[in-house]
Structure formats: C-alpha cells, structure tokens
Amino acid sequence: MTALVIDSPLPRTRSCAALGLVRATAYRLIRPRGPRQGPRPVSHRRLSEAQRDAILEMLHSERFCEQTPAHAYHALLSEGCYLGSIRTFQRLLKAAGESRERRPIRPAQQHAVPRLQATQPNQVWTWDITKLAQHQRGKWLYLFMLIDLYSRYVVGWMVAETENSALSCRFVGSCVAHQQIAPNSLTVHQDRGAPMTAHNFIGLLGELNVDVSHSRPRVSNDNPFSEAHFKTLKTQPD
C-alpha cells in the first residue's frame, strides 16, 4: 500500500481517498518515526522515595486512615504543612492498591433470585398488600391478598384501614388454619415490607412451621403473581 501511494501519479490526498486511507497514516508509512532514543527524562518536580513514603505514612496514620485524600490535604494545609496535592495523594494510594473505600464498612449483601415451583395446591403461597383509593382525596384502604401459586386461587383477602404486623399475623394465620395446612409443607413468598419482615410475623410463621421466601431488596418483579392480580383488580371494567 505504501508503494501505491508513492508511485501514484495522483496527488497524495486523492490517492489516499481512493485507497480509503487517512492521509496522516500515509505520511507515517512513507516516513516512519524512528525508535525512541533512551528513556523519558525524569521531571525535576517528581517526588523522591522519601517524600512518597512520608505521604503514605501520613495517610496510614490513625488520624487520617479513615479520611479521604481531600480531607487529609486540607487538614494539613490548615496547619501550614504541605506534602503534595490531592491528586498526588490519590495517585500514591492507587499505586499502593488502596484507592478503594478505606473505611471498615459492611460489604453489600448478595441476595439470590427467589425461584419457587409448585406441583400442587397449597405448596407455595404469595401475598402482598396494596392501596385502594377512596372517594375522598388522600384516603386509602389496604387490601391484603394471598394467592396460591399453583392454581392462582385467592386463598384469602382482607380490607383494613391500615397495615401493620398485627393485621398480617391475623390474616395469614387465619388462612393457614382455614386451609388446614400440614406442618413443613408450605412456603410463603412475600416482599420486604414492614408488615412482612416484622419479628412477630416471622415468629408466627415459625410457630406454624411455614417456610418463608423474600423478594430481593428494591426488586418488584420478584413477586409478579400478586402484582398481576392487583393490576387486574384495579384496571378491570366496572
């Protein structure tokens, strides 16, 4: 391709356009840049090893070990001490593999995707609570509804003026008693709302020997069957 560009009788620009070649690339092929002569010179402003060690020792100290580079920089500057810029602090921490969160915090929890399968009725129930608008603006009723996953049968429902764990215990407990559920044969799937995660409600399910399954935090699609029933209820024609 270099020979075609050099030997072409056309101007260099038209030759490159015909070959689909950038003109700068053609010039680079004709006159390639020579090898770099020696290593890049070291800047006179580069920190010495002693200065780098002093900065890292300061950032590792008890005073600044949980602070950001910006906080350490301004705290030292207010005391008349300058060891380097904020970017220098960040660069040294990155080189040392310490540019992530330096404070001792709890790692993010990993929640598995709930996968439930029912082969017969009364194996898996799913339930939720939704708001029902009243005629008066700002007034709501709360619908508690429990569905059998296998048959989509509405096992039970209740309308109340509020939602709390006491009502949840009464509602689910009455459904389990009415269906005469055998111990260790039922799994109840629910989201992570306050009535579902309250200690007294979880304790009741434990007393009834009912397994519990929760949706992942902030994932509404993990309880699709209850949500679909609510949508059908609220959007069906009168």
Structure characterization notes:
This protein has 3 domains: 1-32, no CATH class; 49-95; 124-235, Ribonuclease H-like superfamily/Ribonuclease H (Nucleotidyltransferase, domain 5, 2-Layer Sandwich). Helices cover 39% and strands 14% of the residues. The protein has helices at 2-7, 12-19, 23-30, 49-60, 69-78, 86-95, 165-179, 194-197, 199-207, 224-235, and strands at 124-133, 140-148, 154-160, 187-190, 211-214. Strands 3-2-1-4-5 form a 5-stranded mixed beta sheet, sandwiched between helices. Strand 2 (140-148) and strand 3 (154-160) form a beta hairpin. The longest helix has 15 residues, at 165-179. The model has no long low-confidence stretch (mean pLDDT 88).
SSE blueprint and pairings:
Blueprint: H1 2-7, H2 12-19, H3 23-30, H4 49-60, H5 69-78, H6 86-95, E1 124-133, E2 140-148, E3 154-160, H7 165-179, E4 187-190, H8 194-197, H9 199-207, E5 211-214, H10 224-235
Parallel strand pairs: 1-4, 4-5
Antiparallel strand pairs: 1-2, 2-3
Helix pairs in contact: 7-9
